Amino acid sequence: MNNKDRAETVREKLRQKELKNPSGSSQGRNLSDLTGGLSWKATGIIILLLIAGSLYYLLKSNPPIVISTISSSDDRQSVVVGIGNEGFRDIQLLDVTVNDGGEPSEAMLQVSNAEQGLIVTDNFMSEEVKDFGFTRLDMITIKSGTPAYPNLEESNQGIPLEDLPLFGVSVIHDEPIDRIDIEYRHFGMKYEHTVYFD
């Protein structure tokens, strides 16, 4: 066997080896090379975990609650915060705390409409507020797509202002309120939103 035949035999053996194991080739990359030889089940689990982690991050970094009106009495012992929901699903209010985590004297969800608006009151049972709907925080879910600011142009399209919903968290406390923390649930996860009163 001469040198030419020997070189051809060596090249043929290298080519056969390359065909059996293409990972060393710049053209032979495949999924098993990228995953380090993991089984297809392990690769699928890793992909699902990456998708779940990305979804969790997306939901947590884009809280659904939107704040509109922030109003208080002169002594800041009664406040109202207008809220809406820009999330994918309904939100359920869970709790409201004031200042540094203290329990307010009273906290209610105000259910109103764009024509009537929201009201600041120091008595949820007074005659003055009987036309405003006050309910416990956990009694009503705020539907997805509920605007914090009602679209008044919709009333020009035949939708009466009284049919455009408006929600507000109303809080009464025996001390001036510097901030309220609204805790709520969306998509099975808990969120907290802080509103400051200056």
How would you briefly describe this protein structure?
By secondary structure, the protein is α+β, with helices and mostly antiparallel strands. It has two domains: 3-60, no CATH class; 64-196, Immunoglobulin-like, CATH 2.60.40.
Written description of the protein model:
The chain contains three helices and nine strands; from the N terminus they run H-H-H-E-E-E-E-E-E-E-E-E. The strands form two sheets. It has a five-stranded antiparallel sheet, with no helix packed on it. Strands 6-3-8-9 form a four-stranded antiparallel sheet, with no helix packed on it. By secondary structure, it is of the alpha+beta class. The chain has helices at residues 3-20, 31-34, 40-61; strands at residues 65-72, 78-85, 91-98, 106-113, 133-135, 141-142, 165-172, 179-186, 189-196. The N and C termini lie far apart (95 Å). The protein has two domains: 3-60, no CATH class; 64-196, Immunoglobulin-like (Sandwich), CATH 2.60.40. A hairpin with a 2-residue loop joins strand 8 and strand 9 (189-196). Helices cover 22% and strands 31% of the residues.
User: By helix and strand content, what is the structural category?
Assistant: alpha+beta
Report the span from N to C terminus. 95 Å
Indicate how many domains the architecture comprises: 2
- β-sheet strand percentage: 25-35%
Largest sheet: 5 strands, antiparallel
The count of strands amounts to 9
CATH class of the largest domain: Mainly Beta
User: Residue ranges: pLDDT <50 for 5 or more in a row?
Assistant: none
Main sheet strand line-up: 1-2-7-4-5
CATH architecture of the largest domain: Sandwich
Shape: elongated
- Specify the helix fraction band: 10-25%
Average pLDDT: 83
> Which fold name fills CATH's third level, the topology of the largest domain?
Immunoglobulin-like
Count of alpha and pi helical runs: 3
Q: Spell the H/E element sequence.
A: HHHEEEEEEEEE
Radius of gyration: 31 Å
